[in-house]
Structure formats: C-alpha cells, structure tokens
Fold this sequence. Notes:
By secondary structure, chain A is of the alpha/beta class. Chain A has one domain: Beta Polymerase, domain 2 (2-Layer Sandwich). Chain A has 16 helices and seven strands. Chain A has a seven-stranded mixed beta sheet with strand order 3-4-5-2-1-7-6, with helices on one face. The radius of gyration of chain A is 20 Å and the shape is globular. By secondary structure, chain B is of the alpha+beta class. Chain B folds into two domains: 3-112, no CATH class; 116-305. Helix content of chain B is 35%, strand content 30%. Chain B has helices at 8-16, 36-45, 72-75, 97-112, 141-149, 182-190, 215-219, 248-258, 262-265, 267-279, 290-305; strands at residues 20-24, 27-33, 51-52, 61-66, 78-83, 92-93, 116-126, 129-134, 154-157, 160-164, 170-171, 177-180, 200-203, 206-211, 226-235, 242-245, 281-287. In chain B, the strands form three sheets. In chain B, strands 7, 8, 9, 10, 11, 15, 16 and 17 form an eight-stranded mixed beta sheet that branches. A six-stranded mixed beta sheet of chain B has the order 3-1-2-4-5-6. In chain B, strands 12-14-13 form a three-stranded antiparallel beta sheet, sandwiched between helices. Classes of the chains: A alpha/beta, B alpha+beta. Chain A binds chain B through residues 21-23, 25-26, 30, 33-34, 55, 57-58, 60-61, 63-64, 67-68, 70-71, 74, 314-315, 358, 360-363, and chain B through 28, 57-60, 62, 81, 84-86, 89-90, 92, 100, 103-104, 106-107, 112-115, 204-205, 263-266.
Amino acid sequence: MNAPDLLSRTLRAPDAARGFSMGEWDLLLRQAHHAGLSSRLHHGLRQAGCDEAIPAPARWHFEAADTLAARQQVAVRWEITQVKKALGNAGIPLLLLKGAAYVAAGLPAAQGRLFNDLDILVPREALDAAESALMLAGWHATGLSAYDQRYYRRWMHEIPPLQHVQRATVIDVHHAILPDTARCRPDPAKLRAQAEPVAGLPGVRVLCATDRILHSAAHLFHDGELPHGLRDLSDLDLLLRDAAGETDFWPRLVARATELELERSLFHALRYVRYFLATPVPDSVDAAVARFAPARPVQALLDAVFTRALAPMHPSCEDRLTPAARLAAYVRAHWLRMPPRLLLPHLFHKAFLATDTREAKAA
Amino acid sequence: MKLLQLPPAELRRQLAGAGVWLRTGPFSVRVQSRIPHVAEGLTQLYGQFEVRSPHEAFADFHVSVDRPRGVRRWLRPQVNFAVDGVPPFKPLPLDQAFPMLEWGLNWCVSTRAHQYLIIHAGVVEKNGRAAILPAPPGSGKSTLTAALMLSGWRLLSDELTLIDRKTGLVHPLPRPVSLKNQSIDIIRAFSPDAFVNRESRDTIKGTVAHLRPLRDSVQRQHEAARAGWVIFPRWQAGAAASLIPRSKAQTFMFLAENAFNYSHLGADGFRVGSALIDQAACYDFEYGVLDDALAVFERLATEHAA
C-alpha cells in the first residue's frame, strides 16, 4: 500500500497530473508548499514531460519556487567557499553534510531543495578551534536560552547553531551524526575515513554514498520534529535512486548500516520511502534488512505513527490521529536520543518552562 | 460579480464557511473569517472587487482571520492570521482583525510572488506612466498616495510595487490604502470622495484605518503601466513643494535595499531594477502642503504627456 495524499501520489507518478482538475492543482500546490517541495515537484513534472499540463493560474507558484530554490543554491555555494576559507585558516578540513553536500557534489538530491542551514562535520577535538575560526569570520552563537545552550554543549552531537552577523546564514557544526546520549552511536571517525573529495571544489569533502544515505535516515528517524518529513524522505528517495547504479551498492549499504549501528534507521528509511515515494528496492535487500525490523506489534504502531507524521504538513493530509502521531514521533525520537533520567526533565522543561520564541512581525 | 452584489448575510455565510473568493490585481484569495469586523471591512472597502462562487476550485492564497482558541479568548480577545492553517505572526488584539488581514495579504504577496520584483513603495499612474513613491515609514508616502488617487491618479498600490520580471511593467495591486495616525484625518478632510473605515488603535503602527480604493482603480486592476518616475516624498512642515533630481545610482541602491525580494532574484533582480531606473526620472520631493504637492505631480504628468 502507498501513501494516499495527492502530493505523494504525484511525486510517485507525475504523469497523473495531465488529468488533474483545477481543484487538484489547488490542493497539490498547497500541500507542496507546506512540505517545502514545490520546486522539486516542478522538476518531477518537467522530467515526466508534464510541464505543459500545469494550468496558467498555477504556473507562477512553481516558477517562484524555482526562483527561490535557484537563489538558495547560489547562496549555499557561496557560503561553502566562505566556510572553507574560515576553517582553512585554522587548518580544519571541511566536510559537508546533508543539503550542502548534495549541492557541492552536484547530486540529483540538490534539485529544488530548500535550505535552512548549512551542516558540517568536524572532529570533536577540533570543535573549539572550528567555532573560534567561524566566529572570526562572522558566525556567532544565536540567541538561545541558557538552558538550550547548556543542553547543546553537554548532550548534543552539535554545538548551538552559529549565525552570520551580516548574511544571517546559519551553520550547524556537528562532531557526530547522533547525540552522545543516543542508543546508537555511529563512530564519526568511520564516516570521516570514507568521506570523498568533491570535483571542482578542492579541500571540500562529503560523506560517501552509503554514508550520506545512512546519515539522512538516522537524522530523519531520530529527529523529534518533522516539519519537512516528506522532503527528507524525498532526499532519501533521490539519493537511493542515484546511488543504486554503483557496483554492489545495496550489499554495501546493508553492511555499512551494521558497521555504523544504523540498521534500524535503514530499515525504517526503506520502508517509508517506498510507502510514500515507491523507491525501487531489490527483493534481496528487502530480505536482508528484514532482520533489522522491530517486533511485529511495535512495527504496527510505528506504521500508524510514521504514515501520519511524515505526510505533508497540511490540514488535508491529517486525520484524527495525526496530532497524536506527531507527538509520538517526538517522544520516540527523544527516547532514542536520551536515557530516561535525562529525557524526563528535558521534556518537562520543553513543555512547561520554555517560552515561545516565534517571531512576531506583522507588517 | 462584484462583492457589493453579495447580500451581507451571504457574505458572512461564505466567510464563515468555505471562504469568500476574491481577486486583487493578479492574485486570487480565499478569505475565511467569523469575525464581524472582517466582514464589515470587506463590505465597506472591497465592494468593487471581483468575487466568484465559494466553490471556485483554485485560489493563489488561502487565508483565515479568526480568534485563537483557549482561555485567553475570554480575558483578552485576540485574532490570528493564518495562511492555509499556518500563522506567520503572533496573534494581535481582536480590534486589529481587519488591519491584520491587510498586513497578512501583503505578507503573502511579498514572500511568494517572485515573478515580480517587489518594491516597498506606493505607486500611482496617470497618462500611462507610473510614479513610484518609495520612502521610509513616517515620510507621508501613504498620505500622498491616497491624495493622488483622490485627485485623478489611478492607484496601483499603496505598499507593494510589483515589477513584472518579464516585461518590466508595473502591475496594479489596488487594495485599501493603509492610513496612519494624523493622515487619517487629513484624508477625511481632503476629499468628500474618501471613504475611510473605522480606526484600529494601538497597533504597532499606531492608529490605523483604511481608505477605499476608487472604482476606476479597481476596475483597471489588470492594466499594467510603464514606470515614469521614482519620487521620494518627504513631508516637512512649512516646506515649499520642490522636486530635486536625484542620482540614479543612489536610487537604485535604495530600491534594492527596500525591495522585499531583491536578494531572492539574484542577477535577475539587478537586471530588472536597473532597467526600471533607466526608464524613470528620479527625484527627491519635499512638501509642506498637500495641494502644492498635487500641483507638482499634475505638472509632471502633463509635461510628460506633452
């Protein structure tokens, strides 16, 4: 069975768009906008030769989304050169993660992707030096509460986000891909050891194909809030389709998941990427990852949670259980990231003590 | 059909249900609200705007203005603006429901409509040429825009100047003109044609009310215009009305900084912005008396036509 929402259906089979009514275009645009997938959807429609099927009133929405996405790619490339310069001065190598890595390596997953920040991985022992070097170049810790600052520095796999004083770009400096307190602890040294150089960008490296897929999966299934769950799944879909052509890709992916303690994340990633986006996965891989599956009743519960929590964040994709599913995904992610003696006080703080930091700018 | 042809009960029913579908310039909007102030504002100010059946399938923006749930609604009534269920702002006091709809619609356009270079400026047209009035808040931009509309210029927009990236033309987005503080009384006194709705007090901009756009401006809302002038108005007590030519380079820099999406457009923003400046005469404009200011604008329009 596959996800029933219109956006997922269209991403799976763009050809169907030829027969869409105006009402379906209206809904599709709204779901895509909320999911941060407008430009990528447009790309999919173009690739399927359905560009002409987009009715005139809907067209500017796609073009405006392309404008934003194109601009963000230029900005990300520029930020990469700036970060590289800043870290280079301190003798720290630059290893890009997630979206920035997809852009640098020219992967299909960069297509139509929107960015909130730039993620980099540095060795833990170089963390202080990296933060100082970035501060000298204009990136400073943002206005987090004292609690959040402490929380990041003591327990997390990254330091608090650094924001550039002029360009307002945000860098997340990671020393690992999961928190120190998480139940699985992929060794960052192993990731760094297999990182690859990027053609045309000397001194810049990205994780190898298997590792960036596993990182993306680990991130998605350990992250408490899933505002862009479907976008992240779409990243995984494009990464998998792209890497599937490499020799022995699938067996290497499965073996690497074991090596990095990310078997369960890989299992979930493959399960839901197929449910939402019908990513082709060979039967042999299916059989191989079956042993990573949780017990059957647990799996049934997780299906109920993730088929809802990863759907586009739009009222039309929600049912009675969606709020509960999102809460469950949030609690589950924290459960995986922290032992209970840390988790309970943390959730208590977030629920009752933390203040709403949403910006108020009504003009 | 026009919004004024909808019986008030039907308008309220649509607003409370699927939403009322209306067109403003190049955009269609579906508005939902159960707040009487919003229905009243739409009736008073949007009468000339095109509406369609509430079952119209497609709209560019789906917005709602409603009271948030919770205990607070009884203590300190508030209002929330949401775009397709997501509120971009914090709630405001209930009395500001209608201004919040206006600000919210501006926000929708300025954060999404990147097929235009969107400059924060008033803009009016006469004899086929548009006068773009960019200026910092408090410079009297809205007052002058309103007075020009009431004196035979066509209102294109009081806040958002939309420059089509393909054609370089200014696209109209005529909506109610936002008036602040003293300018509310100035405009009420200025013209018997002026309809200004009731005031909302203590907003972040002070006291705010909206002036109804004239019928001609709304009816011609699909008629684009070529940019003729970029004029920076500044009201100064006692000043004689004077136009002072201004450097094109400086004007360009100001427009770029005051465009909502200049940086999003990359190199194309530069191309569209510089083409605009090339074809427009650029001035600083100081004035003390509104009638003198209008005479200067009249002269500009006539000189150009001649």
